[in-house]
Amino acid sequence: MAIIDWPEEQRPRERLIRQGAQALSDAELLAIFLRVGVSGKSAVALGCDMLSHFGSLGRLFNASLGEFSALHGLGAAKYAQLQAVLELARRAIHEDLSSGCVMNSPRAVREYLQMLLAGRPYESFIVLFLDVKNRLVTTEELFRGTLTQASVYPREVVKAALAHNAASVILAHNHPSGSADPSAADRALTQALKQALALVDVRVLDHFIVAGRTVHSFAEHGEI
Asked: Do residues 153 and 195 make contact, with C-beta atoms less than 8 angstroms apart?
């Protein structure tokens, strides 16, 4: 049954307007984005298929065009729309973090990092470079692949910090395995980078590990 044939109080768009976006399920939000379903399947059902196919919102958001289009009912136009929406959301959060002290917006930092890292099938190491007032200057992905103290070169992180005239940094990487618990290598890497950056008077404020919807903060756990 098409959504237009549903009782008005059950339709996702009407519910969003009446109750707010937070009241809707992931599939219902995707249905509003999709606008229409496919033959014999409503937009909500197609949204459920998307979640089942990709396993999580993070993997859906990070899917390539080929992966996205492999699901019936999706294609280049929807892929472009989704990427545009995601980029607007990233830029909005970036604006907030650039205009005020990031330490006053821990939730925004987590959301920003989740949007950047959750769902990536490979390990990615990024650095948030901050000015003297702890405002976000820029974000860079510096390394990809298996991250160890040997593969993440401290000199490259120091070089980037100096290039951006950063007073402090926030480190972050993801765990595609799904567990946000830091490994011994993660802890060793954090200390190595902290020591290297201290030599040029750049502070490491935190190191986040993102695993899906779970985020581990080294600072909150007294590990930095």
From this structure: no
Structure tokens at 144: 């990809």
In angstroms, the CA 98 to CA 130 distance is 9
Q: How confident is the model at residue 58 (pLDDT cuts 50, 70, 90)?
A: confident
The Cα–Cα gap between 103 and 88 comes to: 23
- Sheet containing 124-130, strands listed edge to edge, beginning at the edge strand earlier in sequence: 136-144, 124-130, 168-174, 203-211, 214-217
Q: How many CA atoms lie within 13 A of 60 on its CB side?
A: 19
* DSSP single-letter state for residue 103: G
Whether the model clears a pTM of 0.85, i.e. scores above it, the answer is no
DSSP 21: G
Torsion, CA 200, CA 201, CA 202, CA 204, rounded to 10: 120
The pLDDT of residue 150: 46
Instruction: Please answer whether residues 125 and 152 qualify as being in contact, where contact means their C-beta atoms are separated by less than 8 angstroms.
Output: yes
**Of 18 and 2, more confident:** 18
Q: Residue 1 has what pLDDT?
A: 53
Residue 64 half-sphere exposure toward CB, CA atoms < 13 A: 3
Q: What whole-number distance in Å separates Cα of residue 60 and Cα of residue 110? A: 19
Mean pLDDT, to the nearest integer, of 107-128? 90
